[in-house]
Each structure stands twice: as C-alpha cells, then as structure tokens.
Amino acid sequence: MTLNEEISCIINKEQVDVVDDNDENKITTQFNSIVSSLPQPKKLIVGYALTLKKTKSFLQPKLENLARSKGIVFVAIDRTIPLSEQGPFDILLHKLFGKEWRENLEDYRQKHPDVTVLDPPDNIQHVCNRQSMLQDVAALNLSNCYGEVGVPRQLVINGDPASISDEVAIAGMSLPLVAKPLLVDGSLKSHQLSLAFDQFSLSKLDPPLVLQEFINHGGVLFKVYIVGDAIKVVRRFSLPNVNGLEMLDVAGVYRFPRVSGSAASAEDANLDPEIYEHPPRPLLEMLAKELRHRLGLRLFNMDIIREHGTRDHFYVIDINYFPGYGKVPEYEHIFTNFLLSLMQNKY
Ligand SMILES: Nc1ncnc2c1ncn2[C@@H]1O[C@H](COP(=O)(O)OP(=O)(O)OP(=O)(O)O)[C@@H](O)[C@H]1O
Ligand SMILES: [Mg+2]
C-alpha cells in the first residue's frame, strides 16, 4: 500500500467514527497525529566549524536556502563545547587552524566513523606546508596528449638568510624567485609573498620560506576549484611577465599584493587566446582525480598557470584547502549536489 493509500484508508476509517461522534476537531487532531507519526524525509545535518569570515563568504543565503529546500541543514559548531556533546551530525565541514582543534576533531573522527568529516585533519596539514603541498603534483608527473603539468623548481630555506644566495647558486635556480612563507596558517603574513630579482637581496628575506622559480605566464592564472567530483575553473589576473631586459634594471625584493584572491575576474577580459584559453578539460579531470586520491581531500583548489609561449605546459603553483567557494559562480548547486551525493553513497 502506498503512503497516500494508507492515509486515505485511515481517514476513511476515521470518517466512519466521525459520523458516529460528529466531532470535527477530533478528526483533525487525529489526522495530524497520524501524519506526524509517519516517517519524515531524513534531514541531512551538516555541522560547520569555520571562522566568522569564512562563514560569511561561504554560507551565503543562496546556499542556505537552496540547501534547505533539499533537506540540508547547516548547524554551527560551538568551539567552547566538546564536539562529542554536539550534534548528531551527518557531515562535518571545517577549516580552523591550531593543534588543539585538530586533536579534538581527530578524536571525534575516531569515535564517530559514521560522520563524514571533510576532510581528515592530517591530510589538510599536508597542504598547509609549502614544502609538502606540491609533492604529489610533482610525483604524478602528468603528461599526455592534452599537455603536461608540473611544479616550479623550489627550495626550502630554514636557516640563516645570509646563506640563501649560496644555497640558490648550489641548487642552480634562476632569478627572479618568488619567496613564500613556509607555512600557510590562515594568517595574513603567511600570504605575504615577494619577488626577489637579484642574488644580493636574497639575504633580506625572512625564513622559514620556500623559494620558487618565477614562471612567466602572461598575467593570467586559473583557479581550479574541486568539490568532490566536480571541477570549476575561474580565470584571474596574476603577475605580469618579467623579461630579461627588465631584469637588468630591477634589483631588490618586491613585496607584492595578494593578486589572485582579488575580486577582479579575468573572465571577460580581452586577452590573447593563447593566454586566455582554459587548460584542457580532460587534463584537469585527470589531475583532479589523481590529487583527490593522493591528497585524500575532497575540498580544495589549485592555482595553475600556463608557461608563456606554450599552449600546453602547465604549472601548479599553489593548493588551498577549503578555498573561497563563495566567489565561484553556481557554487550553491555544486555544493548541495556534493553533500547529497555523499549521503547517497553512504546508504
Ligand atoms: N612560481 C610562480 N611563478 C609565477 N608567479 C607566481 C609563482 N608563484 C606565485 N605566483 C604569483 O603569486 C600569486 C600568489 O602565489 P600563491 O598562490 O602561491 O600564494 P598564496 O599566498 O596562496 O596567494 P593566494 O591566497 O592569493 O592564492 C599567484 O597567484 C601568482 O600570481
Ligand atoms: Mg594561491
């Protein structure tokens, strides 16, 4: 018997009683209690532990409204109360830094294997250190008929700034070099990057850091957002090319602003198609599939550049966990579909 048939059967039976009792209120009350005792569609409870800034950019009304209409409810996690005293949750979304939070979450994860934690804290740590962040891309050594994907040559500097110049010479690295703080810890400082144009100025840098060879890429960067199996590419303006002649004139360390995160999109810009064209879709799909698996992460993005003058030489220069999805067009659809798919795969 279908649900409708069941209800109408019960109502018909109750109507017989109504003729007997002639009590309309009674039938309404009984009808309501029957309906509420029937199995309701299960809600998907998503706990989230995000900074205020992240909550604001991610949990926009368009996401919450669409999610609600699909039976997904977002619940804020209270950091002052132990995780195991909160919930129950089906899924846990998080991006908070600090050892205490990581341990708390790992402990919760062990005790609640039924809850999908996006993503495991140790896997996130791996991409919060620029020494390990790109290792999996390098090991993958992706090259096929659609193109090749690598990482810039890089060197980790932990010691005395005075010896950086020697270390760079020994490693045979070419200037200019991008200097990036070793750890990405959510602070503004960890995103303060600089470009070093000559070997003498290298001693002004502030270790621990990673030095990466600067790759000319025509001033355009591709932010490739991953949400489970979904991939969305957004074009952004980036640093302009540096040519050999300019290099003769410039010296020193140039601190540059956060270019790729800025609101300026390069989507509609009138650019050379060789620079402008997105990386081939099959190449990105292969890369994303491998990295999801190797990194053990489902929510991340990659900054990818195309080496200037080539059509199919790409470099991954950065990977971020739980990036600013709020800026991605249609992210509310991508995200709700992803959350629902997690539950479908579970049951
Ligand atoms: N090896 C490189 N060659 C050329 N440009 C680079 C290189 N590395 C970084 N850049 C430029 O510097 C910008 C910031 O670098 P990166 O993404 O590694 O740092 P970030 O702190 O994560 O910045 P953001 O949060 O803005 O992505 C890039 O978007 C790109 O414009
Ligand atoms: Mg970046």
UniProtKB/TrEMBL annotation:
The question of whether Kinase is a record keyword is answered with: yes
Inositol 1,3,4-trisphosphate 5/6-kinase ATP-grasp domain mapped to chain residues: 146-340
Give the function comment from the record: Kinase that can phosphorylate various inositol polyphosphate such as Ins(3,4,5,6)P4 or Ins(1,3,4)P3.
What is the protein's name according to its record? Inositol-tetrakisphosphate 1-kinase
- Binding site residues for 1D-myo-inositol 1,3,4-trisphosphate: K54, K95, H191, K223, N320, G324
Q: Please provide the Gene Ontology terms (biological process) for this protein.
A: inositol trisphosphate metabolic process
* Keywords from the UniProt entry: ATP-binding, Kinase, Magnesium, Metal-binding, Nucleotide-binding, Transferase
User: What are the required cofactors?
Assistant: Mg(2+)
